[in-house]
Amino acid sequence: MKVNFNDHVYEIKDINYKEKRVLWRMSLLAFPNLEKSDPDQEAYYSMIDQVEELSGLKEKDYVDAEGNNLSMAEIDLLLQEVYAQYMGLSKKDK
Question: What pTM did the predictor assign?
Fold first, then answer.
């Protein structure tokens, strides 16, 4: 599977149904009821860490199109995009 982020294409591993269900449950813990409470940051980062593990992305992969290292904020945004594609919430790049 490919994810396009900031003009760079990242190759990530596909996940299966069971792995999607785990991520879905984790997202429900991170965002329980946004009308009544703030997101649970600890649960959110646990979910993002799980996305990173499932995706197969490693520290060496976190570079932009010019080969510059991504910032931590950019890495989080990339992993959010990976999550969105895993959950079918974003247009998949082919």
Answer: 0.88
